[in-house]
């Protein structure tokens, strides 16, 4: 984008020259166009900092140019001008994203001040968005990749491919966070400042999905009263996510294959190639290889989109992330519904850790949302007890949540729990002996886990003391996320006192 260039699209030669002289005297560069077609072509070449659009042009309404121009940057300032008072077109222009409107005739200084105002507003929005993109990803990125080894592997692959333009196929069960992975890929790429556009291929029938993806020309079919720009054009210079691609009709699969091969497409009823300068990400919860073998998905398309495959594991295989996710959702929905910040009790957390989560993260989020809205755990616990009776609980894997020994002890009544055995350990090589409570009749592996957690607590405590309880600095030294450290501090029962 040229920060000193204004694109003027107006068919009136007198107004065109007047505006050019005015803005040139103010130190700006002006690119002129006299029709919609010329305006779009000049926009692609000049990438201006501001656009002045006449509503009535020889080849149609200037309002039709707003959306394709906006697709290159949502904060682009666009000032509409017109000598005719068509209220409907002005309203449509403002709905489509025009920044302001001026009715001819007007003083030159009025136009210049209007341009300055919309450009300043646009700059402020850009700075705010930049600030948000610096703060928000830290929270979402840490939440997405949490603490589990499985998600760390996903993160490693994402970091490797984010800076490229290769097509990525994101697979996993429904509700695992495939869209969040796609957004993380977009935000970590060179296209991060351009649009991220999602299309749900399962939500629309074939005909509507085709026009949604590729757009159509005026008169292409009954009801096509004006040109419509498709999602591929809206995602220009950015990223498009084709969610649930397995549901795409075979005819559309061949069109998508053409886009991937040629990097261009035709609008419905169009005769001119449209460039598709966007990165394509695909997501599905289905087994595409099996669908290929059954003849329900094109083999050549499968090979095209499956350059890199990122498998997002189900929540039952990464239970270390559950406490972190619960804390996040509790804070989020307590604020959203104006409720006092609650805490999940150990009993509820144990149920969360033992449940199989067929609906994955989405199901966990909905349960926490209900907990916040109801303001009580009783109904939720009663429901989980019914699920326990119906056999909907899964065993906790060794690498996540509580250990099997700890879970067994937690479920037993206090009087029935086995007596603890005092085990002495040598701490730090200083000859001092410390005692730790380990249940009797336990395996060597479980003893090792107790010792590991004890050592982890001591390490965190020493680092916190070293940094004088500067948690962010401690998280950097320990090479874990800030949120993960906060959870560990709470889990270990550490305090400054």
Annotation keywords:
globular; Rossmann fold; Helicase, Ruva Protein, domain 3; five-stranded parallel beta sheet; alpha/beta; about 50% helix; about 500 residues
Q: Can you tell me about this structure?
A:
It is a single chain. The protein is an alpha/beta fold and 497 residues long. It has 4 domains: 5-125, Response regulator (Rossmann fold, 3-Layer(aba) Sandwich); 159-312, P-loop containing nucleotide triphosphate hydrolases (Rossmann fold); 316-402, Helicase, Ruva Protein, domain 3 (Orthogonal Bundle), CATH 1.10.8; 421-497, Homeodomain-like (Arc Repressor Mutant, subunit A), CATH 1.10.10.60. Helix content is 48%, strand content 15%. The chain has a 5-stranded parallel β-sheet, with helices on both faces. β4 (56-57) and β5 (60-61) form a beta hairpin. The protein is globular and about 90 Å long.
In short:
The protein is of the alpha/beta class and 497 residues long.
- Given as residue ranges, the uncertain stretches (5+ residues, pLDDT < 50) are 132-136, 394-436
Give the termini distance in whole angstroms: 55 Å
What's the β-strand tally? 18
As for the number of domains, it is: 4
As a whole number of angstroms, the C-alpha radius of gyration is 29 Å
- Averaged pLDDT: 79
Question: Which fold name corresponds to the CATH topology of the largest domain?
Answer: Rossmann fold
Which outline best applies?
globular
The amount of beta strand, in percent, is 5-15%
Helical content, roughly?
A: 40-55%
- Per DSSP, the total helix count is 20
Biggest sheet, open or closed, and with what strands and sense? 5 strands, parallel
Within the largest sheet, what's the order of strands?
A: 2-1-3-6-7
Structural class: alpha/beta
Q: Do you know the CATH architecture of the largest domain? A: 3-Layer(aba) Sandwich
CATH superfamily of the largest domain: P-loop containing nucleotide triphosphate hydrolases
Query: What is the class of the largest domain in the CATH system?
Result: Alpha Beta
């Amino acid at each position: 984008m040229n920060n000193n260039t204004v694109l003027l699209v107006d068919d009136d030669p007198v107004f065109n020259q007047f505006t050019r002289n005015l803005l040139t005297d103010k130190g700006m560069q002006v690119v002129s166009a006299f029709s919609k077609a010329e305006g779009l072509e000049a926009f692609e070449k000049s990438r201006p900092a501001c656009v002045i659009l006449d509503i009535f042009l020889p080849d149609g309404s200037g309002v039709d140019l707003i959306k394709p121009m906006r697709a290159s940057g949502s904060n682009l300032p666009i000032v509409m001008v017109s000598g005719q008072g068509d209220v409907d077109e002005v309203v449509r222009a403002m709905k489509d994203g025009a920044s302001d409107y001026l009715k001819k005739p007007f003083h030159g200084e009025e136009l210049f001040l209007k341009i300055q105002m919309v450009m300043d507003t646009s700059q402020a929005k850009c700075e705010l968005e930049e600030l948000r993109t610096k703060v928000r990803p830290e929270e979402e990125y840490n939440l997405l990749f949490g603490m589990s080894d499985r998600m760390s592997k996903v993160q490693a692959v994402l970091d490797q491919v984010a800076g490229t333009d290769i097509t990525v196929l994101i697979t996993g069960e429904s509700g695992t966070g495939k869209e969040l992975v796609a957004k993380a890929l977009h935000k970590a790429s060179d296209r991060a400042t351009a649009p991220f556009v999602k299309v749900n291929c399962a939500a629309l029938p074939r005909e509507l999905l085709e026009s949604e993806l590729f757009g159509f020309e005026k008169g292409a079919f009954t009801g096509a009263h004006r040109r419509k720009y498709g999602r591929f054009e809206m995602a220009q210079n950015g990223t498009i996510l084709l969610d649930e691609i397995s549901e795409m009709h075979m005819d559309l699969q061949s069109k998508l294959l053409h886009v991937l091969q040629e990097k261009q497409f035709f609008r419905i009823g169009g005769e001119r190639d449209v460039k598709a300068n966007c990165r394509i990400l695909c997501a599905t919860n289905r087994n595409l290889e099996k669908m290929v073998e059954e003849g329900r998905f094109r083999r050549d398309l499968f090979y095209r989109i499956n350059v890199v495959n990122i498998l997002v594991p189900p929540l039952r295989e990464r239970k270390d992330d559950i406490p972190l996710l619960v804390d996040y959702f509790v804070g989020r929905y307590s604020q959203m519904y104006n409720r006092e910040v609650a805490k999940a009790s150990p009993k509820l957390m144990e149920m969360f850790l033992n449940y199989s989560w067929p609906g994955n993260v989405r199901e966990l989020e909905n349960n926490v949302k209900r907990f916040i809205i109801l303001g009580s755990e009783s109904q939720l616990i009663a429901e989980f007890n019914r699920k326990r009776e119906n056999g909907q609980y899964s065993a906790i894997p060794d690498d996540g949540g509580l250990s099997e020994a700890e879970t067994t002890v937690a479920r037993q009544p206090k009087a029935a729990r086995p007596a603890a055995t005092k085990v002495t350990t040598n701490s730090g090589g200083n000859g001092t002996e410390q005692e730790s409570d380990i249940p009797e009749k336990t395996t060597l592996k479980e003893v090792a886990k107790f010792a590991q957690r004890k050592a982890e607590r001591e390490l965190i405590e020493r680092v916190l003391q070293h940094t004088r309880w500067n948690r962010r600095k401690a998280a950097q030294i320990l090479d874990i996320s800030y949120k993960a450290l906060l959870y560990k501090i709470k889990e270990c029962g550490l305090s400054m006192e």
